[in-house]
Amino acid sequence: MNVVVARLLFLAFVGLTGLITYNALYLQEQRSTALLPTVPKAPGDRAANRSALPPVTTDLPPLPDQKPPSQLVTAIQRELKVRGYGGGPADGILRQETRKAIADYQRDHGLAVSGLPSDELLRHILLGETVSTGSVADATGAAPAPQLKQDVRVKAVQQILADLGYAPGPIDGAMGSATERAVKAFQRDRKIAETGQISRELLREIKRITGRDLAGVASR
Fold first, then answer.
1. Burial (Cβ within 10 Å: 0-12, 13-18, ≥19) of residue 67
2. Tens-place pLDDT, residues 68-121
3. What are the structural domains of the chain?
4. pTM of the predicted model, to two decimals?
């Protein structure tokens, strides 16, 4: 009888000890969970939020339907870069970087801001604000003497073609093969008779673009 009672007491003690241990572990786990920081829930659909943002706008007008001549863009890119306006590589591609450089130049010089290349813009860059239609002023604003030596017209055309990116060869007043190729390329781009020679039509087109009247300049 005493043995049975002793065994019952032992089993009761083991059961009570297990219950106490279980409760202690359970309560410890609950406290640990309560101490963890609360992570806020993610907002709604981020893609939907992004689509609700207003579109990015620019202060430059849209590009025209007709692309400007690549030679004109190349010349403007090169001249702007020389003057510290950047504009990207002089490759004839009218990228946004080039449009920004054009707009900066126009803004700095009190011109209408369009961000677009044009013959008038190139003339302004090359000759500055002293240019006036029909003037004979050179890039420095000084008028040439009325009597000029031979080959000066060829040399002047070579310099203008070089400024426009046509690579006429040495600026020496000699009508060589490189100058003829440059003249033909210019004539082809400007949609005039492709002769490779310094014709009246060529001189009129040069005057229209740059404001320089070379018709009265002596030649061979």
1. exposed
2. 888 889 889 988 988 888 878 889 898 899 999 999 998 888 889 889 988 888
3. 70-130 (1.10.101), 134-220 (1.10.101)
4. 0.43
